[in-house]
Design goal:
Layout: H1 35-46, H2 50-53, H3 55-62, H4 66-90, H5 97-105, H6 107-138, H7 142-165, H8 168-197, H9 210-224, H10 228-231, H11 240-270, H12 280-286, H13 290-314, H14 316-324, H15 343-359, H16 366-390, H17 392-419, H18 423-454
Helix pairs in contact: 1-8, 1-11, 1-13, 3-4, 3-9, 4-9, 4-11, 4-16, 4-17, 5-6, 5-16, 6-7, 6-13, 6-14, 6-15, 6-16, 6-18, 7-8, 7-13, 7-15, 8-11, 8-13, 9-16, 11-12, 12-13, 14-15, 16-17, 16-18
Length: 459
């Protein structure tokens, strides 16, 4: 793995930013994630099973302009990517965007950011596990089918939990392998589609309304988000001030181009039937070869498994960093004595995802997930804008102006995405933020009560 280094104390670049105090929250972690690994992890987190299953939903709203929905979304995401790259350079700590927002606006804002990340990701993780269990049950009958569902859910989860407890290096090896296996069927789809259509990509899909196109943009954002997941492990990235910005830009460029081409190919191959297809990539390849259809179905399964690898690597670090900063029980901030992985946080996150998958309480909340991530992205842009103003003399006037411009555009773009949602969905987002605020205040009251009863000063 490129750029491996064993560092027990983090090299936070926040030390060079006025007004920001370096933290020891990453103490004990080992920086073993190099540029290739981080780039693969971001691609893996963004290109999930939705790439195989949701082009039909995009076409249902955007019609012939499905590829344009991705391009518009990519344009809206460009300033966000710039801000994430700068935030990762300035505050390369566990929790990813939590670190940027906490450094800029304080612990309450950071706590809200971490909760938005955790809620969206654990729901998605539970849903992916449930889908894998259901798929296993569907190919069996009787008691075997009943036993297969929990066995697949718990067995799959145990594999990735164990791999990540064994250390970030082990988790990254699984991610690299999974990302390569995931991209093979997608690249085959693109190559076969281009060869079959001989460059004639005309589609007779309908022209969408503005409202339906807006909904498709939200769905496109759902498909194109995910870079925040592996960035939660920034405390274990080697040479973070260089690795994080380069990995983000490279990965998001590849992902955007891939999504646009996939939407063009499946739209041209399936035409109007794309909007009703629940497995559009498999259906598109079925028109070329049954073997290619099987490859797409297998690719969707591999994609779900591979996505779990990035999720179990990155998101538990949000629990870990909240514990290290005194916002969650201290046990979640412990590290494994041999592997230096936050094993308690990984086990806790895995247990919550298992409960969601096994009880069937998971409900598809793609739009709410996208809105939560849009709010997280807007907060990250605002944080980087504020941090850049504090350190403007170090960035130079041109660099500071670029970051200010990117911050404002990023906030505006994400607010527009949220405004395109329904009122009930916006209320759901506000309820999530309110619950995070109440949880933070309750934790503060508990700590003050404990300090008062023990006669100790508050931290």
């Amino acid at each position: 793995m490129g750029g491996v280094a064993a560092i027990t104390e983090p090299d936070l670049s926040t030390a060079t930013t006025p007004g920001i105090t370096p933290s020891n929250r990453d103490s004990g972690l080992v920086r073993v994630i190099g540029p290739v690994g981080l780039t693969a992890a971001i691609i893996n987190s963004v290109v999930g099973s939705g790439a195989f299953l949701l082009p039909g939903a995009i076409a249902a709203g955007a019609g012939r302009f499905g590829p344009l929905a991705f391009l518009v979304c990519a344009v809206a995401m460009t300033p966000v990517v710039i801000c994430f790259a700068e935030g990762g350079r300035r505050v390369p700590t566990s929790g990813g965007p939590y670190g940027y927002i906490e450094a800029a606006f304080g612990p309450l804002a950071g706590f809200i950011a971490a909760i938005l990340l955790l809620v969206g990701c654990v729901l998605a993780c539970g849903g992916v596990l449930a889908a894998l269990g259901a798929a296993a049950a569907n190919v069996l009958t009787g008691s075997l089918a009943m036993a297969a569902r929990p066995a697949v859910i718990l067995g799959t989860l145990a594999l990735f939990v164990a791999a990540n407890i064994n250390g970030a290096a082990t988790g990254m090896r699984l991610i690299k392998i999974g990302t390569g296996l995931k991209l093979i069927p997608l690249l085959v789809l693109v190559a076969v589609g281009v060869a079959t259509l001989h460059g004639a990509f005309e589609s007779n899909l309908q022209t969408p309304s503005i409202a339906s196109f807006g909904r498709s943009m939200i769905m496109a954002l759902y498909l194109i988000n995910g870079m925040e997941i592996p960035l939660s492990a920034s405390g274990e990235v080697s040479n973070p001030s260089r690795t994080i910005p380069r990995a983000i830009v490279a990965a998001m460029t590849v992902v955007t181009l891939l999504y646009v081409v996939i939407q063009v190919v499946v739209g041209a191959l399936l035409g109007p039937s794309l909007v009703t297809s629940s497995a559009p990539l498999a259906d598109a390849m079925a028109r070329v070869s049954p073997a290619l259809q099987v490859l797409m179905v297998a690719g969707a399964g591999v994609s779900m498994l591979s996505w779990l690898g990035s999720d179990l690597l990155g998101v538990p670090r949000a629990l870990f960093v909240l514990a290290r900063d005194g916002l969650l029980p201290a046990s979640l901030g412990r590290l494994h004595p041999r592997t230096h992985a936050p094993h308690i946080a990984i086990l806790c996150y895995g247990a919550i995802a298992a409960v969601l998958a096994l009880t069937g309480t998971y409900v598809e909340l793609a739009v709410l997930n996208a809105l939560a991530i849009a709010a997280l992205y807007a907060g990250s842009c605002a944080a980087v804008w504020r941090l850049s103003r504090r350190g403007a003399e170090k960035a130079g006037p041109r660099g500071a102006n670029l970051l200010n411009f990117a911050g404002v555009l990023g906030i505006a773009g994400m607010m527009l995405v949220i405004a395109l949602a329904s009122w009930s969905e916006i209320i759901g987002l506000c309820a999530t933020i309110l619950a995070a605020i109440l949880g933070y205040l309750a934790r503060g009251l508990m700590r003050r009560g404990a300090a008062h009863s023990s006669g100790q000063p508050e931290n």
